[in-house]
Amino acid sequence: MSLSLQIEKDYITAYKAKDTLRVSVLRMLKTSLKRRLVDTSRPDAQLDDEETMDIIIKEAKQRRDSIAEYNKAGRPDLAEKEQAELAILEDYLPKALTDEELAQAIEEMVAKVGASQPSDMGKVMGPLMKALKGRVDGGRLSSAVKARLAQ
After folding, report:
1. Mean local confidence (pLDDT), 95-106
2. How far apart are CA 110 and CA 90, in angstroms?
3. Which residues contact residue 22 at a Cβ distance below 8 angstroms, ignoring those fewer than 6 apart?
4. Which of 19, 9, 27, 3 is nearest to 94 (CA)?
5. What is the rounded CA–CA span in Å between residue 138 and residue 47?
6. What is the average pLDDT across 69-91?
7. Max CA distance (Å), the chain
8. What span, in angstroms and rounded, lies between the C-alpha atoms of 43 and 4?
């Protein structure tokens, strides 16, 4: 079953169960998916799993940014709401990498591209972002690569 069909199925299930938070998040996600179809002039088509994943990643990143801003502004109530929405979105993302798995992936890519200094960061980041799409936050990856190349 495609990811967009799974989202639709989960939306219907949440609606019937009167799970208002999940319905709200999935409705927002469905709207974003539909907007992408309209923007790409395919209103009656369906997004493939990669395009759907891109939208889910984008929405999750927006939630993470909002959580940081709300915490900084002293609004834990709003941060909690965003955190609950993020948890629902993360159900559709691949399992996040552990620190050990991330370090191993970085080591493999550094060896593969022959990176040895901080100026080689672009050579490592591009392929890693593509390979680890959805499994690691870009900021976390950037920090880890920067630390590794600074050694």
Report:
1. 88
2. 28
3. 10, 14, 88
4. 3
5. 24
6. 95
7. 55
8. 14
Other CB atoms within a 10 A radius of the CB of residue 89 amount to 22
Nearest-angstrom CA–CA distance, 53 and 92: 8
Distances (CA, A) of 40 to 2, 104, 133: 19, 37, 22
Which tokens belong to 115?
């990176």
Q: What is the DSSP letter of 98?
A: P
CB-based burial label for 82 (10 Å; 0-12, 13-18, 19+): buried
Global pTM reads 0.81
**pLDDT over 90 (residue 140):** no
| pLDDT at residue 137, rounded to an integer | 82
